[in-house]
Design brief:
The protein is mostly helical and about 100 residues long. The chain has one domain (about 10-95). It is about 75% helix and about 5% strand. It contains two helices and two strands. Strands 1-2 form a two-stranded antiparallel sheet. α1 runs antiparallel to α2. It is rod-shaped, with a radius of gyration of 23 Å. The protein starts with a strand and ends with a helix. The mean pLDDT is about 85.
Length: about 100
């Protein structure tokens, strides 16, 4: 499909959407496996460090959750764009088919 010098290969966009879905799934899996170490795991001597490490690991786990959600939204957007382009192509083809009759 092309318009105004812009070209779109629906098959390539579908492959990109599927790959983005795979990335989202990998991020969801990583987010589900994130298990921050609690501060008491560092013992009495490492208590101060343990609290900071725990807080940082919670931030990291939250970032992975956000990455998974954002990647899933990107995949959904790619699929929606693909559907939009396909509908535009069908509409344009139908308009020309009507002229030929």
């Amino acid at each position: 499909m092309s318009a105004g010098g812009f070209r779109l290969d629906p098959d390539e966009l579908a492959v990109l959407a599927a790959a983005t879905d795979d990335l989202a799934e990998a991020a969801r899996t990583a987010a589900g496996r994130a298990q921050p170490i609690t501060p008491d795991a560092y013992g009495y001597v490492g208590a101060g460090f343990g609290t900071l490490a725990y807080l940082a690991s919670m931030d990291g786990a939250g970032a992975i959750d956000e990455l998974a959600a954002a990647t899933a939204r990107a995949a959904a957007t790619l699929r929606a764009e693909l559907a939009g382009y396909a509908e535009a192509e069908r509409s344009a083809t139908a308009a020309f088919d009507g002229l030929a009759r």
